[in-house]
């Protein structure tokens, strides 16, 4: 038997079904009772997915830290596990990394259960733990050599140093590096065994914007090398900038999952068109008459919410046709912050789950 | 066991140690400094003289002879107290630690004893009982041994009265001979406990243990690599302490197979013992600073109570009982008997105790040390 998680097209609930390889089943959504068909393609799942998490649960006493979550990570993609502090991100990733024990559920890496075969997986994965600090009195190069000697399979250290732009700092002691450089060294350490999956737990937390951007470039570069990246973050910009696939976790549950486009289309409020310095009276009324959700923001500023991108050109066409005079127009689509707000009623940046 | 991994970890520890001035200080410079300071303080102990106030109420030939015996002891400088003085008031007025009173009838009693009369006369030794370990106890022992000698000579009746200063041990050991083995035990204890605490609290806080858990290195390989490094440090510290002790203070070291075998056994067992205690501390006290304090709370009392710097004989009886439950006491005694006193029985006994302590604490330490999070 194999398991497959699908999202209900009607209520968007993520539901997991079991079936035999090659089997076609008619299934019913337990939440909205919508019916549909599910096909189990075992070979496709095994080949495409680097990580599969199914019904994972972690309980500490009365606290359910991770509550029955299921998701999968495709090979070669950057998967962002996004959520506020305390949502269960690090607990989940540390269970996948076998640092913590799971209470219930299964975690597979390359189709193998981690509980029974994690030692075999160690050569295939590289990990940057949360708030990792390496040996203070070793240089960058010595640190990388130390960690590479722990593995049978080793990447060329000089290549890693070059690709991480660490050459000028390779002989500096770790303790003398800036925060951004330390995080780059942390990512470099996770690559010493040329891993197929790289786990990065909050790699840019505590960094200034410039250093954060440098770390993002390093991570984006990993995708170009064909690595699968499991990125844990509470920065929505980081997930938006880097991720191919995003899972949003809140209070131990995954509340949304998909590509950025999917999430915006599914949960976002479309685009926000902002007319600045409008000098033509009754523009708001005109747009409302045409069926748009327009609001005056004062001083000639008007906000128009557009749910479907097709209607964007329609607005512009009306403005031109009515000879509306304005200074500028900004168009901004929904972002993850708004999606999180939509789903939880709270801002991601302000939530401590 | 992957030897390449163990060698790599050892090499990283060595580099870290060489670059850490603080660790270098505590493992090498600090014990050397202590040896030099304590050696300088106690090296001139033979030239010290103790003022000893004696009141002769008898004023006879025999009392004069006894006073001469005391006066001839090199470390005693006799000061005569007038027979008119009230000795209690005199001691209080002069704040004297001790004083001796030769009573009236002292000579008469001795004379009568020659004619077979069994007469006993006691000299009075006034001292402050709270002044244990100071000049009072030294002078008391001098008076006691002098009187024993005096009595023995009188009962023989032929020899000229005098005192031969005879040591109760076969060789003349200095304080530094006593101190050097204690210093070795103390240094191994501190470097192993604090080294273990650092590894287990700082590395846990910095995520190093979580990182290592996801690499192919096993916990056994890592602990073995760290233990090999701690043994290396213990032997380096021992050699430095012995080197300074021999070259600067001329420590009476007996280099033979017996000494080498027992020294190595004790040093290895001590390193495992205190590394195990460090592991236990850092398992239950997770904050780095608090764990350091907990380490201090264990090492400092043990340092003073276990006879590192001073002989247990100078302590009150109940303190001696406490010392005998401390592992460092057996380390110190084992090293002293192996290196200095050449007492095979005591060396074997103490080494066995240290090995038992080491086995128990190290196994508990390994058992309670976890890399995995809850």
Task: Describe what you observe in this structure.
The complex is a heterodimer of chains A (353) and B (374). Chain A has 353 residues and is α+β, with helices and mostly antiparallel strands. Chain A folds into three domains: 1-40, no CATH class; 50-265, Rossmann fold, CATH 3.40.50.300; 269-333, Alpha-Beta Plaits. Helices cover 31% and strands 31% of the residues of chain A. Chain A has a six-stranded mixed β-sheet with strand order 10-11-12-7-13-14, sandwiched between helices. A four-stranded antiparallel β-sheet of chain A has the order 6-5-8-9. Chain A has a four-stranded antiparallel β-sheet with strand order 16-17-15-18, with helices on one face. In chain A, helix 9 (260-267) crosses helix 12 (336-344). The longest helix of chain A has 16 residues, at 209-224. Chain A is globular. In chain A, 39% of the residues are buried. Chain B folds into two domains: 3-43 and 173-368, no CATH class; 47-156, abc type-2 transporter like domain (abc type-2 transporter like fold), CATH 3.40.1710.10. The longest helix of chain B has 31 residues, at 175-205. Chain B has 374 residues and is mainly alpha-helical. Helices cover 67% and strands 6% of the residues of chain B. Chain B has 14 helices and four strands. Chain A binds chain B through residues 60, 94, 97-101, 119, 122-123, 125, 127-138, 142, 145-147, 149-152, 173, 189, and chain B through 4-5, 8-9, 11-12, 15-16, 19-20, 205-208, 210-217, 372-374.
């Amino acid at each position: 038997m194999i398991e497959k998680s699908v999202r209900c097209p009607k209520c968007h609930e993520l539901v997991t079904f079991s079936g035999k390889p090659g089997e076609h089943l008619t299934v019913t959504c337990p939440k909205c009772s919508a019916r549909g068909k599910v096909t189990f393609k075992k070979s496709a799942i095994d080949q495409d997915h680097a990580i599969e998490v199914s019904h994972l649960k972690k309980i500490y006493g009365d606290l359910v830290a991770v509550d029955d979550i299921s998701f999968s990570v495709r090979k070669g993609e950057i998967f962002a596990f996004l959520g506020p502090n305390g949502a269960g991100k690090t607990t989940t990733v540390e269970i996948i990394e076998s640092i913590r024990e799971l209470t219930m559920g299964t975690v597979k890496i390359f189709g193998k259960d981690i509980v029974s075969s994690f030692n075999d997986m160690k050569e295939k994965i590289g990990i940057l733990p949360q708030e990792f600090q390496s040996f203070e009195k070793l240089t960058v190069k010595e640190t990388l050599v130390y960690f590479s000697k722990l593995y049978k399979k080793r990447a060329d250290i000089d290549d890693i140093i070059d690709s991480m732009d660490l050459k000028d700092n390779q002989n500096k002691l770790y303790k003398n590096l800036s925060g951004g450089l330390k995080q780059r060294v942390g990512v470099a350490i996770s690559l010493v065994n040329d891993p197929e999956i790289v786990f990065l737990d909050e790699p840019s937390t505590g960094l200034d914007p410039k250093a954060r951007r440098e770390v993002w470039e390093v991570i984006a570069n990993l995708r170009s090398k064909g690595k699968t990246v499991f990125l844990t973050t509470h920065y929505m910009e980081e997930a938006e900038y880097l991720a191919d696939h995003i899972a949003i976790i809140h209070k131990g549950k995954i509340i949304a999952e998909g590509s950025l486009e999917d999430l915006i289309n599914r949960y976002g409020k479309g685009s926000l068109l902002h007319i600045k310095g409008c000098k033509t009276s009754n523009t708001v009324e005109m747009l409302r008459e045409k069926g748009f959700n327009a609001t005056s923001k004062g001083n000639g500023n008007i906000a128009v919410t557009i749910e479907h991108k097709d209607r964007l050109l329609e607005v512009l066409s009306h403005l031109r046709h009515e000879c509306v005079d304005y200074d500028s127009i900004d168009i901004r689509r929904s972002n993850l912050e708004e999606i999180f707000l939509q789903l939880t009623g709270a801002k991601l940046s302000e939530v401590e789950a | 066991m992957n030897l390449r991994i163990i060698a790599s970890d050892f090499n990283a520890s060595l580099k870290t140690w060489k670059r850490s001035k603080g660790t270098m200080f505590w493992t090498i410079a600090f014990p050397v400094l202590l040896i030099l300071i304590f050696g300088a303080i106690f090296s001139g102990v033979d030239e010290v003289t103790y003022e000893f106030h004696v009141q002769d109420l008898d004023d006879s030939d025999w009392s004069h002879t006894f006073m001469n015996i005391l006066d001839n002891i090199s470390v005693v400088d006799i000061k005569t107290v007038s027979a008119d003085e009230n000795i209690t008031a005199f001691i209080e007025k002069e704040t004297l630690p001790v004083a001796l009173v030769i009573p009236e009838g002292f000579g008469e009693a001795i004379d009568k004893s020659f004619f077979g009369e069994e007469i006993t006369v006691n000299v009075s030794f006034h001292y402050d009982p709270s002044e244990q370990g100071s000049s009072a106890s030294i002078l008391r022992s001098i008076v006691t041994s002098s009187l024993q000698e005096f009595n023995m000579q009188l009962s023989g009746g032929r020899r000229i009265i005098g005192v031969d200063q005879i040591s109760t041990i076969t060789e003349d050991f200095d304080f530094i001979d006593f101190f050097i083995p204690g210093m070795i035990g103390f240094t191994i204890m501190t470097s192993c406990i604090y080294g273990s605490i650092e590894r287990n609290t700082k590395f846990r806080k910095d995520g190093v243990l979580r990182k290592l858990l996801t690499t192919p290195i096993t916990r056994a390989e890592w602990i073995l690599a760290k233990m090999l490094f701690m043994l290396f440090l213990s032997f380096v510290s021992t050699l430095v302490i012995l080197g300074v002790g021999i070259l600067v203070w001329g420590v009476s070291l007996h280099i033979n197979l017996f000494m080498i075998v027992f020294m190595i056994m004790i040093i290895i067992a001590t390193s495992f013992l205190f590394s195990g205690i460090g592991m236990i501390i850092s398992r239950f006290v997770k904050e780095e600073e608090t764990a350091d304090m907990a380490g201090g709370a264990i090492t400092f009392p043990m340092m003073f109570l276990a006879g590192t710097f001073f002989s247990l004989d100078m302590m009150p009886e109940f303190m001696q009982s406490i010392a005998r439950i401390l592992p460092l006491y057996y380390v110190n005694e084992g090293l002293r008997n192996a290196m200095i006193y050449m007492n095979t029985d005591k060396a074997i006994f103490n080494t066995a105790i240290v090995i038992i302590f080491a086995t128990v604490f190290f196994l508990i330490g390994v058992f309670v040390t976890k890399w995995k999070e809850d």
